[in-house]
Amino acid sequence: MTAAPVAICIPARDEAERLPRLFAALDRLIVPPETALTLCLLLDGCTDASMEPIAAYRATGRHPLIVDRVDRAAANAGRARDRAMRLGLASLGRGGAILLTTDADSLPAPDWVTVMTAALDHADLVVGDVVRSGRGGNPDQDRIERHYASLYALRRRIDPVAWEAPAVHHHASGANMGLRATTYATLGGFLPVMRGEDARLVDDAARAGLRVRRDAASIVHTSDRRVGRVRGGLATTLCDLDRDGLGSVSVAHPADQLWQYRLHAAARRAFAGSDFVALSAQVGLDHDHLLGVARDCPNAEAFAMRVVPVPPGGMRHIPFVAAEAALAALTATPAAAA
Description:
The protein is α/β, with parallel strands linked by helices. 44% of the residues lie in helices and 17% in strands. It has 13 helices and ten strands. The chain has helices spanning 19-27, 51-60, 77-92, 112-119, 139-158, 181-187, 197-207, 234-244, 254-273, 277-283, 287-296, 300-307, 320-331; strands at residues 6-12, 37-44, 65-70, 98-101, 106-108, 125-133, 177-180, 212-223, 250-252, 317-319. The strands form two sheets. Strands 3-2-1-4-7-6-8-5 form an eight-stranded mixed β-sheet, with helices on both faces. α5 packs parallel to α9. The radius of gyration is 21 Å and the shape is globular.
């Protein structure tokens, strides 16, 4: 049986120096013989020599390469990634085709396609892990990422779901993401926002009741450069940490996040049993309101994402070092994962 075709969709702005490395990584991908793989590259207002490595790849590369270009405008990560994804839609059609996306400064692991396509047998949207590589590492960013990874792992112990991966991570990055073409069309695509389009798509998918899987077996290596294409992205974060360290970093209080995770689990149970009495008291919404929301939700995932509010006192933000210590204290007690 022929497997679903796959398009790898990549936005690029002035990445002529990095495209040869990206193309080399894509040619190292393990692709089952029955899988048709197409590369879709969106040149987002490039003013460099990006067409040179593209021409070289077309002459010697392993996979078909479709290229489109748009005129330079203000950097808009969401618009560029959506245009890249729509190249994939146009080349493969909707149906059961699979759209994967990464970045031009990133290098997927050789098993990336096989891991992602297998994961999509269990979920509607798969977000893989993103590993920073290069010589510009920052130990403060490493600490922040370990904190969020621990927090997400705790979330899944508190609120397990059947479609989650055995090993999870915390990222919601367009550098490593995949879904079926029909799912992308249903969600309406990446929104035209300056940054954060990837996290928005993941949130929208969960609120729609889609199964979002954060799979640590899927790995993409990304650069730790300090000059990014969009202000406020990873490059900006690394520059800020280089200059200021962790002193200026604040994050949500882990206790408030755990409050939400426990209520997500309670909401799933209430939806499954059509019993909203206890949940009503916990979330501060009356029984009839919860019943009405449940009737409009396709499944427990959508219900949980829609009815669980922020904690009664709001989502507190505290200095990162304090949050790190608070999470360590919470996870030291067996009750934290109850």
